Amino acid sequence: MAQPVIMPRQGQSVESCIITQWHKKVGDSVAEGDILFSYETDKSTFDEPAQLSGTMLAILVNEGDVVPCLDTVCYIGEAGEDVSALSASAPAEAAAEAAPAEEKKEEIAAPVVTAAPAEAGERVRISPRARNLALQSGVDMTKVAPTGPHGRIIERDINAALDAGFVANTAAVEAFLAGQPIVVEEEAPVAAEVLAAAPAAAAEDDAMAYEEEAFNGVRRVIARQMHASLSEMAQLTLNSSFDATALMNFRAMLKEKGEDLGLGKISLNDMVLFAVSRTLLNHKTINANVVDDKFRFFKHANIGLAVDTERGLLVPTLFKTEELSLSAISAYAKSAAAKARDGKLTPDEMAGGSFTVTNLGSLGVESFTPVINPPQTAILGVCAITQRIREDGSVYPAMGLSLTFDHRAVDGAPAARFLSDLCKALENFELLLAK
To answer: According to the model, what pLDDT value does residue 122 have?
Structure first.
């Protein structure tokens, strides 16, 4: 008996998924474990394996379709089974087969020449070469758009009409030309003008060339969230910096001796995450969400880590970071970032964040305005290290931090206190490790 295959639900917050690729087609043999189709949620991509063996009897949705979770997408059963009664929808493959034919038809459809033909009684200004080509080819002269100087028809105009498929016959061309006075102009000036104009036209066409690509699922979600963030929140950014000497010295010590102690590669960003995890719980309005005009104060520092991927910006959540050591946070962050780049994060691994950290310092950005990840109340931007001069003339490394907060929920003073406390913790990083 034919068995339905449903669209899985990846996480409680996921309502629908997008079919990105079918790996089987109707009539194909299916073995248990074979990949049937690939799909993506708002943030991740997945492959769906077959749970039974048989034959692909029907495919009900096309690639690119948005399918509600738990809806049937295909049927697998014994070869020859009739599944028409199981679904009123025609198999998606029938539509897929028809689509290329329609696209091909659109591709070969002749473009419309927009210029109007000459009125009766008007002179037809045409070069000798264009006139000869028109007579030889039997082009439909009523569709020829003159582009030469002073409304003259030149050879490329005839070719354009022919390329568009506008063909009549020689008699029609003769009748068109004979019915109106003809001005045959000297060839040499026309040729020079044509040669001069052609490169400019080609250059103009090349300058307007572009490729068009639809937003993928991740980009659509990012666009929607960022628009909602900026339109629904009163966002304000505070910028500060701290003396990163202690941070840099500790980083140098880790590079030199960390491997001998069995420590993994710990980055400056890992250190910032550690400091944030120890500072957040002292600032409840920063470590919070706002949902339906209510605060949701978190008991743990669940830090969102902004990760740049080929599919777009993904934000996995590092849960309970205040309970983790520096090396554990570093390993956690690297694992989450790798899953994000590989498209292996589940929606639940990107939910529940209380605060987000995003780092553009590696790209040399000295200050920026990060956009809050709703429904969180704040986000921290980590900036590049720059060299600054103390009052005594000595030079020190300064790292910039940019804190954007939702002014509806957080006043300026509490936000500034959080940023100040974080800078102090980072300036005294080794003491922070001892707490």
So the answer is: 56
Residues recognised as catalytic: 407
What is the pLDDT at residue 147? 82
- DSSP 8-class letter at 117: P
Query: Dmax over Cα atoms in the chain, in whole Å?
Result: 100
3-class SS at 176?
A: helix
Give the number of other Cβ atoms within 10 Å of residue 99's Cβ.
Answer: 11
Beta-bridge partner residues of 153? 126
Q: List, for the chain, all residue ranges whose pLDDT scores fall below the cut of 70.
A: 12-13, 42-43, 87-123, 149-150, 178-205, 214, 216-218
User: Cβ distance 120 to 180 under 8 Å?
Assistant: yes
**What is the distance between the alpha carbons of residues 282 and 426, in angstroms, rounded to a whole number?**
16
Peptide bond preceding 8 in cis form (omega within 30 of 0):
no
**Helix, strand, or coil (residue 49):** strand
Is the distance from CB of 376 to CB of 289 less than 8 angstroms? yes
Q: β-strands 317-318, 312-314: how paired?
A: unpaired
| Contacts with 41 (C-beta within 8 Å, 6 or more apart), sequence order | 10, 11, 14, 17, 217, 347
- CA–CA gap between residue 243 and residue 397 (Å, rounded): 6
3-class secondary structure, 40: strand
The DSSP call for residue 350 is G
CA distance 324 to 322: 6
C-alpha pair distances (Å), 382 with each of 31, 310, 378, 398:
49, 21, 13, 12
Q: Mean pLDDT of all residues in the chain?
A: 82
User: Which amino acid is present at 130?
Assistant: A
Which neighbouring-strand residues pair with 398?
243, 386
DSSP codes, 278-291: HHGGG-TTTSEEEE
